[in-house]
Amino acid sequence: MKIPFFIARRYLRHTRKQRNLVNWITWISVVGIAVITAALVIILSAFNGIEQMVSKLYSDYDPAITMRSLEGKTFDSTTVNIESLRKIPGVVSVSKAIEETVIIKHGKKWVNARMIGVDLSFVEACKLDKHLVDGYPYLEENGEPTGVIGASLLDKIDGYISELDGHEELMLYTPLRDASIARLKSPFKVSPLKIVGRMNYNKDVNMSDLLVSIQYAQIQLNYEDDITAIYFQIKKENIDEVKAILSQKFEKKFQFKTAAEKNELIFKTSESEKKIVVLILLFIFVLAAFNLVASLNMLFIEKKENIETMERFGASKRFIFQIFFIEGLLISAMGILIGLILGIGVCYAQINWGFVQMPNTGGEIFPVILRVKDILFILGTVIVLSTLSSYFPVRYLVRKTIR
């Protein structure tokens, strides 16, 4: 006579009154699995938020693709048909640019800076107006050239934009092309420049960059049609396709770099940190699963007499294995369910109410992004680990105990 499965399981569960030790170990298993599962959800969501924040800080300012000459620092812009580049599918805008290292002086303080001469299309593409600490996103005012400087760079030379006149005046020392120290008193062209805005993108930009109009940069450097780069703003889904078209079009004359390639170290470091943390948490989950093994072991010892009774009634090894295996799965399922609810709940609270703030940001909320694919990854991984943690111990105990 075969014993119905649910009756056998209930029999094993309720035949003894005192199960304090087994209960404690079982609940420790549930709590351990729940905590690690919740931590995985929270950590992955936090990394998603950080990645998006870093991507936004760099992608807003850095062009999708930067084109530079392989033959020298500058090239003649008239040799490149800008209009034909704008017609490439996926290209949003094309901007000529001049980049040069300059010296800025304010009072008795001097500092090196990277002057970038750009046109209006780049100012719009990099959303300059949304990244201003103070001032205005203008590169020209009343016919006069003006500049927008990195916030930290202006602080470094004790400059500030006065509310009274709306600007700060600096002295700009620009190196002259083919200048000879023997013939000239100074190899620099010295000009005053009004700074009308301070920008805040990322640490590198904030500490080094000065935006001016491309016409002003050409005058300062005595460039006629020469430029140092062309910036492309491209739809995200078309970046690789456009890069391939440009590389084929210009063969070996120009180099093309995407924003991701330009900041490869930053993005790869963030991705590597995410993977390492997830692996550490999964390893801790495996350690927490040993509590599940201990719980099943204690349960098996406690029910040894009941197992022998069931054997006399005709219960097979497979039948008894299924009872304890499902018991382990139920313990794991409880921990996983509690962990998912807890992790998603914490992320939801952070997204909506922002309990945790970024340090040294003036109250900016720590970014958290929940993604379905991450939840599915966590769910699949912890289910596999929990199943293995239940299957092998129970299989070993059944083989060792039952003849």
Query: Per DSSP, what share of the residues sits in E-state strands of 2 or more residues?
Result: 15-25%
Computed CA radius of gyration, to the nearest angstrom:
33 Å
Number of helices: 13
Helix content: 40-55%
Strand order of the largest sheet: 3-4-10-7-9-8
Number of domains: 2
* SS elements, strand count: 13
Low-confidence stretches: 14-18
| Separation of the first and last Cα atoms | 19 Å
Family: Belongs to the ABC-4 integral membrane protein family. LolC/E subfamily.
Keywords: Cell membrane, Membrane, Transmembrane, Transmembrane helix
Domain ABC3 transporter permease C-terminal: 279-401
Domain MacB-like periplasmic core: 26-247
Short summary:
Residues 279-401 form the ABC3 transporter permease C-terminal domain. This protein has helices spanning 5-14, 20-61, 82-86, 120-125, 151-156, 203-208, 214-221, 239-250, 259-262, 264-302, 304-312, 317-353, 372-401; strands at 65-69, 75-76, 91-106, 109-118, 132-135, 140-141, 144-150, 168-175, 188-199, 209-213, 226-227, 229-234, 254-258. With 403 residues, it is an alpha+beta fold.
Keywords:
single chain; 403 residues; alpha+beta; 2 domains; 6-stranded mixed beta barrel; two-stranded antiparallel sheet; 21% strand; elongated
Report what the structure shows:
Helix 2 crosses helix 12 (317-353), helix 10 (264-302) packs parallel to helix 13 and helix 12 (317-353) packs antiparallel against helix 13. The protein is built from 13 helices and 13 strands. It is elongated, with a radius of gyration of 33 Å. It has 403 residues and is of the alpha+beta class. It folds into two domains: 5-58 and 266-401, no CATH class; 63-259, no CATH class.
